[in-house]
Each structure stands twice: as structure tokens, then as C-alpha cells.
């Protein structure tokens, strides 16, 4: 079966502009439109509610192909920032970086490997959200059942629910106090531009908690090796030269990578 996607007549201009990667799993469409919808969700937030188009009048029921093309091209430049702001990427990449530091490795695994692993783990954790957005927002919009404004509102809800579940109440209160805003009656009343910084603070807080638990056993190995070298009178030998291979061996024996991935994925449940 040929997996190459053709540019068929009648397809949306977005489908022609977005690269057609050969992704070997059944969620191709959900992933393809995931970051596009994230960008549109940000545009639909209350932070941009006061923006007025005085020179150009747009029909809500039919966004022009030129505007769609502009949105896709803009998305390509903003995709890294959107990925960090609105997904689980921040927590995952921080934990993986702290793991590398705890092992005492400087450039192994390299940054490219860590970021690639973090990206695919992010897709894994965000897949339920992407499926919901695709089913409830994009698919009806593609079938011309709803207009653009309704699609954006529907797409914002599952993403907002994910962020609220991962955000600590204390962080939300801090952001609201800084903005001199009253505490809303329900979590759904929180504005997206207020939720995003609170979500990032909570992600960093959780990542540092996990990183602390990762550091402890490796720190214990360093202390034991240093004590043994001091007892043997080998004070001139760097403890790191002995503890590093021991830490790597222990990490491999306990299937450390599997445990780290399980802990990261489990932290989002």
C-alpha cells in the first residue's frame, strides 16, 4: 500500500502546505493538526480578545485560504514556543537533563537525543488531548459543520482541562495576585493567558521534585566512593573516576530508563 500522500484537488490549502511525513502509526492526522490547533487556541484566548481588525472584515464562517496559509507559516516559527507553553514537554526535558547531571555525564546522551525522546514522550502524553481536539473541533470544522470561532472554543477546552489538572492551586493564586485579578469561582473561568504561566511554574516545580528523587541515590554512591577512597588513603584519586562507572552500571541493572519513563508518564495521571 502506498503511504505517500497526494495533493488531491479539493483539499484544504493547509493540507498542501503541511509536510506529509510517513508516520508509522494510526494517529497521523491528530498529530498533524495538533500544533496547528494549539496556535489557534492561543489566538482565541482572552489575551487577544481586544484585538480589532479595522481594515479587513473576515467572515467567521469561512476563513480565506490566504489567512489559513498565513496561520500555517506563522505556526512554523512559533511551534517551539507553543510546544513549551502548552504541553508536557517542559517537565519531561527538565527531568531528563537532571538525570544526565545526576549521572555525572556532560554530553551523553547528547542534547539531540534528549530532546527527541522528550518530544516523543510529549506526543505520547498529549495524544488523548490531540484526539479530543481532532474529534470535537477539527473534524466538524473540516466537514463545515461549525464555524471557525466555534471550532476554536471547542479546541481550547480539552487543552485547558489538561493544563488545569497539572497546575497547582498555589501557582494560580500567585499569577492572579500579580495580575491584580480576583480568584474566579471555578477553574474553567481562569483565562488562558493567566493559566499558561501558572502551568509552567507547576511543571518546573514537579520536574524539580522528580529530579531531587533521581539525584539522591547517585549522591549516595558518590559519598560512599569518597569515603572508601579516604579510608584507603587514596585522596589524590578523583572520586568521580570511580563513581561514574558504578552509577552507570547500577542505572543499567535496574532498568533505569524504563523507570524514568514510567515515572514521567505516571506523573501526568
Automatic annotation (TrEMBL):
TM regions (residue ranges): 33-49, 69-99, 111-134, 210-232, 244-265
Per the UniProt entry, what are the Gene Ontology biological process annotations, in alphabetical order? Answer: bacterial-type flagellum organization; protein secretion
Q: Is Transmembrane helix one of the keywords?
A: yes
Recorded hits in InterPro entries, A to Z, give: FliP, T3SS_IM_P
Identify the keywords attached in UniProt to this record, alphabetized.
Bacterial flagellum, Bacterial flagellum biogenesis, Bacterial flagellum protein export, Cell membrane, Cell projection, Cilium, Flagellum, Membrane, Protein transport, Transmembrane, Transmembrane helix, Transport
User: Which GO cellular component does the record give, naming just one?
Assistant: plasma membrane
Topology class, membrane: Multi-pass membrane protein
Signal sequence coordinates: none
- Organism's domain of life? Bacteria
Q: Where in the cell is it found?
A: Cell membrane; Bacterial flagellum basal body
Q: Which PROSITE patterns match?
A: FLIP_1, FLIP_2
Query: What family does this belong to?
Result: Belongs to the FliP/MopC/SpaP family.
Q: What does this protein do?
A: Plays a role in the flagellum-specific transport system.
Protein name, as recorded: Flagellar biosynthetic protein FliP
Give the source species. Answer: Legionella worsleiensis
Name of encoding gene: fliP_1
Amino acid at each position: 500500500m502506498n503511504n505517500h500522500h497526494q495533493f488531491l484537488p479539493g483539499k484544504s490549502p493547509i493540507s498542501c502546505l503541511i509536510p506529509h511525513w510517513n508516520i508509522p502509526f494510526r494517529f497521523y492526522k491528530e498529530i498533524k493538526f495538533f500544533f496547528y490547533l494549539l496556535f489557534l487556541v492561543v489566538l482565541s484566548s482572552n489575551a487577544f480578545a481586544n484585538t480589532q481588525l479595522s481594515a479587513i472584515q473576515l467572515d467567521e464562517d469561512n476563513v480565506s485560504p490566504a489567512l489559513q496559509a498565513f496561520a500555517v507559516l506563522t505556526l512554523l516559527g512559533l511551534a517551539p514556543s507553543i510546544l513549551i507553553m502548552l504541553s508536557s514537554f517542559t517537565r519531561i526535558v527538565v527531568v531528563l537533563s537532571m538525570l544526565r547531571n545526576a549521572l555525572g555525564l556532560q554530553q551523553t546522551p547528547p542534547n539531540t537525543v534528549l530532546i527527541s525522546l522528550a518530544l516523543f514522550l510529549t506526543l505520547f502524553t498529549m495524544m488523548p488531548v490531540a484526539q479530543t481536539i481532532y474529534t470535537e473541533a477539527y473534524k466538524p470544522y473540516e466537514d463545515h459543520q461549525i464555524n471557525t470561532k466555534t471550532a476554536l472554543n471547542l479546541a481550547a477546552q480539552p487543552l485547558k482541562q489538561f493544563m488545569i489538572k497539572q497546575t497547582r492551586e498555589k501557582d494560580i493564586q500567585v499569577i492572579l495576585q500579580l495580575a491584580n485579578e480576583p480568584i474566579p469561582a471555578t477553574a474553567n473561568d481562569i483565562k488562558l493567558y493567566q493559566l499558561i504561566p501558572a502551568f509552567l511554574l507547576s511543571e518546573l516545580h514537579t520536574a524539580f521534585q522528580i529530579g531531587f528523587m533521581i539525584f539522591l541515590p547517585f549522591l549516595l554512591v558518590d559519598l560512599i566512593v569518597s569515603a572508601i577512597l579516604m579510608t584507603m588513603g587514596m585522596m589524590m584519586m578523583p572520586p568521580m573516576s570511580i563513581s561514574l562507572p558504578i552509577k552507570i552500571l547500577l542505572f543499567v541493572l535496574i532498568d533505569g530508563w524504563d523507570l524514568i519513563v514510567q515515572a514521567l508518564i505516571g506523573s501526568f495521571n
